[in-house]
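Protein Entry — a single chain follows
Fields — amino acid sequence, structure tokens
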Amino acid sequence: MKVALLSREYPPDVYGGAGVHVQYLAAALAAQVDVEVHCFGSPRPATPPVDVFAYQPWDALGGEAPLLGALRAMSVDLRMAAALDRVDVVHSHTWYANLAGYLARVLYDIPHVLTVHSLEPMRPWKAEQLGTGYRLSSLCERMGIEAADAVVAVSKAVAADIAACYPAVDPARIVVIPNAVDPDEFRPSPQTDLLERYAIDPDRPIVVYFGRVTRQKGIGHLLEAALHLEPSAQLVLRAGSADTPELDRELDEGVAALSRQREGVTWIRQSLSRQELAALLSHATVTCCPSVYEPSGLVNLEAMACEAPVVAAAVGGIPEIVEHGLTGLLVPFEPSGPADPEPADPARYAGDLAAALNELIGDPALARKMGQAGRRRVVEEFSWTAVAARTVGLYRSLVASRGVTIGVADERQMNVR
């Protein structure tokens, strides 16, 4: 069987959880099926046994208008679709690649599997990034989801969101297959080079945030919470560029204001290798995931694998990963409304985050116990081997249901069914 994974992100251009997911899923699938990755961007180096094909947007789409980002993505999808006639299954990830999967299904009569890492109707702030292109990203997502042969949700919470946002999707086509993490790559590390490079004191409590800078991730609420942290605690932000220049300026101003009111604030803007990130997480007293919308929360699995306890909002799929009182603490969260995921009471939310963080800062023994329990949970329940096996089983069932000979893509050219 030949499978094509369709994604905007693939190494070395990975900026979010979906890209990490595709990278590790491709490697795990390659032990069982032939795998190709079709992604955005410049040509990639060979990564045997996975074949990688990259595509650039149409040159004619010049300009800086936000909506052009969506049109460029759609132009890449058209190029992808033209190259997918030789595979048995296409599997798209995020709206950026859903149109390519949809078109391949229509053009070549092959199954389209679509993994939902997040949903456009749940992310209204995307209009800041894409302008009216948000209407196009929503269109690509809707077309892909409603026509896909199987829709993979990365958590039970996402499955419920899919049913609510897209009632036309038959619930029988929604399958929950969770995210995973490599516990051999993310594991406790004694290395302190990174701490020394950024003058982070390993003998003082360390609160770590790592992730993208987007309103979804709630980093602004963490900055508010940091005003109420124990004075001895350090706050380390591993966060790069924001989704928009406006949000970049907001974060700049927020970190500067916080630094004027307390010491020990470190903002690491540079990307870290996985080894460096694992070392940072291994020395964290506690990590914080203040997201206001989080379908799964891969960052929490990565932290737990490094024996770091987690304080996180009780939103989306996070409670399916973080066990309250066992591997971390969940903070209650009440959104403003169905169309506004921001907290109804921002001050209370920030205060609750600070209280949970301070509880673990003040009880290092409890924090260590939760961290150890978190790694055990990751090793036992969230492996890529298990995720790949379930995914291949899904592929085989879809191909078999169409009466296609598995593993003989060339026969489709001869109309074998």
